[in-house]
Amino acid sequence: MYAASTFMMQELTRRYFDDFLDLQEAGNTVEVPQIYTIPKSTPIPSHIILTNDFLARFTLQPSHGMALQDLNRVLDEFFDKHAVKEDAESWIERHPYPSSTPDDADDVWMKK
């Protein structure tokens, strides 16, 4: 699931990061949550499509039938090549909640 720095993205990221901290505090070994940002105007390869599911929520899906293993490889290659990766804590610090955009304000978050 992909979203701009909207209220929904903030809620999901902060909730997931809180869960991570709770698990870590309980002594569990868990991976640090990562946020992948795809820069505006990044070309999407023809074998995947970017779908606007709802408001500011997007998903990458195969453009034709493919095995899950192949889709995972394609997505890994796409993210390795194009994504700006940062841990959730850094993302939260760089994107304060008050600067978030309402999810239905696509005329605002699409310009960012």
Automatic annotation (TrEMBL):
Pfam families: ADPRTs_Tse2. This is Tse2 ADP-ribosyltransferase toxin domain-containing protein. It comes from the Eukaryota. Residues 91-112 are annotated as: Disordered. Residues 103-112 have a biased composition (Acidic residues). Residues 4-91 form the Tse2 ADP-ribosyltransferase toxin domain.
